[in-house]
Amino acid sequence: MKLAVFDFDSTLMDGETIDFLAKELGLEAEVAAITERAMAGELDFFDSLVERVSLLKGLDVESVNRICQNLPLMPGAQEAVSSLKESGYRVVCFSGGFRNATEPICAALGIDADFSNYLHEKEGKLTGLVGGEMMFSDSKGKMVQRLQKLLGVDAENTVVVGDGANDISMFQYAKTSIAFCAKPILKEAASDVVDVKDLREVAKVVLGK
User: Fold this and answer.
1) How far apart are CA 193 and CA 175, in angstroms?
2) CATH of domain 2-207
3) What is the pLDDT confidence band of residue 161, given thresholds at 50, 70 and 90?
4) pLDDT digits (tens, 9 = 90+) for 195-206
5) Is 7 among the residues known to form the active site?
6) Distance from the Cα of residue 125 to its chain's centroid
7) Distance between CA 71 and CA 74 in Å, rounded?
8) What one-character DSSP code corresponds to residue 126?
9) Which strand (E) or helix (H) includes residue 49?
10) Which of 7, 19, 163, 167 is an active site residue?
11) Which label site among 21, 105, 200, 208 has the fewest CB atoms less than 10 Å from its CB?
């Protein structure tokens, strides 16, 4: 058994889900500035997530789902996932973002499971509250360990791919940790760096080892 874990925002998907949602409210610049600092490791991930989601209060859930189902895939995403699965990998997505986005896109890509957060809603609108599986800076590392134990996979047969500071926690549990078009703080922790915006390059790194 082999395991490949991909981050979602700015890795499998070309952009940040929360920035696309904030654009609907005219708050894209404000939210994007917080996102940028969080991914660079300048802000605590939990605090930044709660602050950004609070700004989405009042957004129609219908609009959220429409936006999330039409997010742009990263170039090469489908090919990379297919290549890894054909080579015996279970492919999983971890996201500090939202299930509204990861569920439909991961299903379309053929990804085996997705773990992310939930935007709380009431009467068809976002309440500005969030909860879920990926709320903290160490959430991804803890989930990698749980999946490895569940699937019987060791670090030698684990691949992780991400772009931001909240991906660091899972890098220590994989022999192959790939910083994809990543922030400097993540590149320092990675075994491999891919700076070409094409996930087929990630598959080449993994399958070429």
Assistant:
1) 13
2) 3.40.50.1000
3) very high
4) 999 999 999 999
5) yes
6) 24
7) 10
8) E
9) helix 45-54
10) 7
11) 208
- Rounded to an integer, what distance in angstroms lies between the CA atom of residue 161 and that of residue 79? 15
Task: Say which of 9, 19, 114, 163 is annotated catalytic.
Answer: 9
pLDDT-derived band at 86, boundaries 50, 70, 90:
very high
Amino acid in position 146:
R
In the chain, the percentage of residues whose pLDDT exceeds 90 is: 96
In terms of Cα–Cα distance, which of 176, 178, 137 is closest to 161?
178
How much helix, strand and coil, in percent to the nearest 5, is found in the chain? 45, 25, 30
Q: What is the reported pLDDT for 106?
A: 97
Characterise 61 by phi-psi region: left (phi > 0), alpha (psi -120 to 50), beta (else): alpha
Band of pLDDT at residue 209, cut at 50, 70 and 90 = confident
Q: Go through 102-139 and write b for each residue having 16 or more CB atoms within 10 A of its CB, e for each that does not.
A: bebbbeebebeebbbbebeeeeebbbbebebbbebbeb
> How much is the CA Rg of the chain, to the nearest whole Å?
16
Q: How far apart are CA 3 and CA 19, in angstroms?
A: 29
Q: Is 58 helix (H, G, I), strand (E, B) or coil?
A: coil
